[in-house]
Fold this protein.
Amino acid sequence: MDFLLEKNTTTPPILKIYVCEILSLFCTSFSAGADVIITNTYQASISGFVQHLKISEKEAYDLIMQSVHYVRTACDRFAQEYPELDQPKPLIVGSVGPYGASLHDASEYTGSYAATTSVETMREWHRPRIAALVEAGVDLLALETIPCRVEAEMLLDLIKEFPNIKAWLAFSCKQDGKSIANGENFQETVRRCYDLNPRQLVAVGANCLAPRLVESLFKDINKGRRQNPVPLIVYPNSGESYNVEQGWIDREKCEPVDTYIPHWLDMGITWVGGCCRTYATDVTRIKNQAKLWQCKR
Ligand SMILES: [Zn+2]
C-alpha cells in the first residue's frame, strides 16, 4: 500500500494515508467475495472539496475521479497477488449520496431539506460529481440513501445527460416499514421512479435500513406488474440502533443480515448486500447464502 504514498506526491498527506486504508478495505471486500465495490464518494462534492480542502474546482473534480482509480488499483492488485482465486473482477460502482449529506445538519436522514432546497440547486450540486465518476469509468452509479422523491426524480432526469451509464437507485426509509425517509410511500415511489428511466436503471430499492423492515417495504411491490416488474435492490445496515451517547447499540438483538437472504431472493430481490455496520464476514456469508439459494433452484 505504500506505492501511492510515494508516487502520489501532489495529494495532501491526510488523503494519502486515507488512500492506503481505503485500498486495504477494498481488498478486504474483494477477498470476502463482493461482486460489486462502491467508491467512497458518498459525500464527495466539488463545492465541498473546494470549501474544506481549499483546492480548485479542477482539483476537486480530479479527486473524485481518483477515488475510482483507487478502487481499480485495489482490484488489480488483489488479482495480481491472488491469481489462484481466479475471481471475476467486481463491478466498480460510483457512490452518489444525497444532497442533504453536504448540509451536516442530519437532514439527509429525514429529507427535510427537500422543502427548502430548489431542484436546480440539487441538480447543479450533483452534476459535476456524477460527471467525474462517469469520466473516470465507473461501471454503474449508486444513487443511494436518497431520502426524498423530488431528488430521486431529478437524478433520474440528470443521468440522461450521461446516456451510456446505468445506475441503481436506493432510498433511505423510515422505521414504519412503508415510507421513504421524507414520508412518501415507498412502493409508489419505487414504481414511479423506475418508470421514469427504465433504460438506465438496473434496480430500485433501499439501503441502510434495518433488515427487519425489508419484508414489509418490498412485499408485493411488483404485484400487478408481471409484464414490467421493477428490478429490486436492498443492502441494509446491521439493524443496530444508534445512540448519541453510547454509539451503536443492541447488536446482540439483531439477526445477521445473511439469515434474511434466502427469503429476500424468494421475494424477487435480485441485488443484495450490506451497508453500515456490516463487514467482510457478512459479505462472505451473504454470498454463501446466495450460492446455496441458487443451487436449490
Ligand atoms: Zn449505511
